[in-house]
Amino acid sequence: MNSTLLLLCCLLIFGIYLGRKSTEVGIGGSFLTESVKSVTLTDYFLFAKVRYSESCGGCSVLHLLAHLMNKAQSHGGDPIAYLTDADGPCSTNPGYMTPLLPTYLNASNSIAVYNENPTNSFNVMNKIYYVLFFPGNGVMYPEGSYILCWSVGFCKGVDTSMKKFTLNLLQIDMRLFDSIKRSVKREKSYILLKKKVWMLSGKVVTLEGDVDFSLGDTFPIQESKLNRLDLLAQTKRLVSYDRATFISVEAAAMGCLSVVMPLPNVTRDEWLESVGDAFKYGIAYGFEEIDYALSTMDRVNDHLRLLASKQEGNVREFVQDARNFFGV
Length: 328
Description:
By secondary structure, this protein is of the alpha/beta class. The protein is built from nine helices and 15 strands. The protein has two domains: 23-167, no CATH class; 174-305, 3-Layer(aba) Sandwich (Rossmann fold). The strands form four sheets. Strands 4-3-5-6-7-8 form a six-stranded parallel sheet. A five-stranded parallel sheet has the order 12-9-13-14-15. The chain is globular, with a radius of gyration of 23 Å. It starts with a helix and ends with a helix.
């Protein structure tokens, strides 16, 4: 009798195990137990391997997208966006919910998310390309792809027959911004040199002209955002030859005069169409706009708070739109 009861108990426990198989997935240094039943095949998103780095804007935005997708998901707590470490360890942001793909999910069944460069490393049917910069001249995306554009201006460079969605994501950590002590006495001026190319209304433009090094020392690109913000909080003026770097916005948020060198024959409105709404206040598009930058600098942080409050809702809208497009 006792042996029969023991056998029944073992069978019951085994049945529960089969009914709810789970796996542990690393998320920001912790672990989350996930149910295999709660994620439907082809209803999850897999991000092509990209290492997280605070000094790489495009890399950090892809990780932020995965994080916000998981925050905004509707699967009762289970992630819907995963990273892959198939080619080796993948660095992540400890504060983000960006789990690695569990062993019970097949990469080929996912909706793959890439950067702007066409590839099919997962051998999947459903592909999303996030155009965070320019993909290069003559790039053709596979038929049936979903194009996620960082700005309205970037979307203009994509074939009109493609499905497009604009999602202007930014790493806006207002708690970190507010924690930085602004220096009253500022003397140092810097110039920022990064990208030498630009995309305007779908056309890739190579920037001409010499850099005026008399405007300041070359700004040291900091691996740590905290160190970068601290330096900007002590800087008098930052002149950027990179027309799209978020560092220009960070400078304005830190009370630094932020000047973006204008593009030849490109108006402020055309520039804003490509860089997004975060650049609206506190930034001079050319030295002629210094008065505008100074007079609107006090609006920068509140404006960033407003944009940050909308990001999760915008991501939720994107996820639903992508699911509708792929029919999952």
